[in-house]
Amino acid sequence: MQELKGRVAVLTGAASGFGLEVARLAAAAGMKVVMADVQAEALARAADEIRGLGAEVLAQRCDVSKAEDVEALGAATQAAFGAPNFVFNNAGVASGGLVWEHSVADWNWVLGVNLWGVIHGVRVFTPMMLAAAKADPSYEGHIVNTASMAGMASAPNMGVYNVSKHGVVTLSETLYQDLALVTDQISASVLCPYFIPTGIHLSERNRPSELAAGAETKSQMISRVMSEKAITSAKVTAAEIAAKVLAAVRSRQFYIFSHPHALAPVQSRLDDILQQRNPSDPFLARPEVGDKLRAALRG
Fold first, then answer.
1. Is the pLDDT of residue 167 over 90?
2. What pLDDT is recorded for position 231?
3. Are residues 272 and 144 in the same domain?
4. Which of 35, 73, 115, 262 could cross-link 14 (Cys pair, CB 3.0–4.6 Å)?
């Protein structure tokens, strides 16, 4: 999809991080921008900024874990601008800890946003895009789902997050293949960022009260501290990743990696599978990190 001017972008998680940076680039490219986020005040500020760049903007509060919210977003998009050309299913939250220590509320919250949010986005917007393609041979569309490098490997002490992001990766791969069966006008990509300073380590601030966290365990505290340090000290910016996203939309590139040089754990995992061997030590390249984590958990 080389031409973006005049076309319609739908972005979830649009009030900050990747979503806001992609909104800025979409506005600069002349797109009409639909911005959705669970944070109403932050969304209003972000929408005002994007309008200030000259874009037509529809801003709607949306909890992507709720089917009715995403369905309402789809209906509002159709009414305001018609079928979207670019859908960025991007909203996400983070949580870590030993896999058996996650509560039911943890699972429901993380899977609800990270996985069900993408499922709802695909379920609602893909039929709209297919209908537009059937009606107009010149229509072009692209869907980008935000997963993570955690969806490509299985790092320890990140169980609930890993599960949610592996789900997004396979959903996106299947979406790509399914679209190719029925149309040449619409395609898909999956974004797999590594540690990027997006503010995702602060996502507990948006956790709904009915899914409130219990008392923090040792493993969860360790995961939170390690993630915060890695995210806040990261050098690659959300703006750089946003540029990669739009470049992938233009070129129909499926896998979008923020740190291609960090794919060694993915290669190890694939080799383990193909050679039918037990999972490799995830800390082979940095044994001191593994030693520190084991000592902290066993101490």
1. yes
2. 86
3. no
4. 35
Tokens of 155: 């790092």
- Give strand ranges (E) for the chain: 8-12, 32-37, 57-61, 86-89, 141-146, 186-192, 255-257
Would you say 246 and 184 are in contact if contact means Cβ atoms under 8 Å apart?
A: no
Radius of gyration of the chain (CA): 19
Residues 233 and 292 in one domain: no
User: Residue 191 phi/psi, 5° resolution?
Assistant: -95, 125
SS3 11: strand
Please count the structural domains in the chain: 2
Give the domain range for residue 162: 8-262
CB 20 within 8 A of CB 47: no
Q: What distance in Å separates the CA atoms of residue 193 and residue 271, rounded to the nearest whole number?
A: 22
Task: Please give the mean pLDDT across all residues of the chain.
Answer: 95
Q: Are residues 164 and 140 located together in one domain of the fold?
A: yes
The answer on pLDDT for 201 being more than 80 is no
CA-CA distance, 220 to 226, in Å (whole number)? Answer: 10
**Residue 200 pLDDT greater than 90, yes or no:** no
Query: What residues act catalytically?
Result: 161
Which residue, among 140, 193, 143, 153, has the nearest Cα to 173 in the 3D structure?
Answer: 143
Distance set, CA 104 to CA 21, 33, 157, 185, 210 (Å): 33, 35, 17, 40, 11
Half-sphere exposure of 119 (CA within 13 A, CB side): 15
Question: What band does 261 get if pLDDT is binned at 50, 70 and 90?
Answer: confident
Tokens of 31: 């797109």
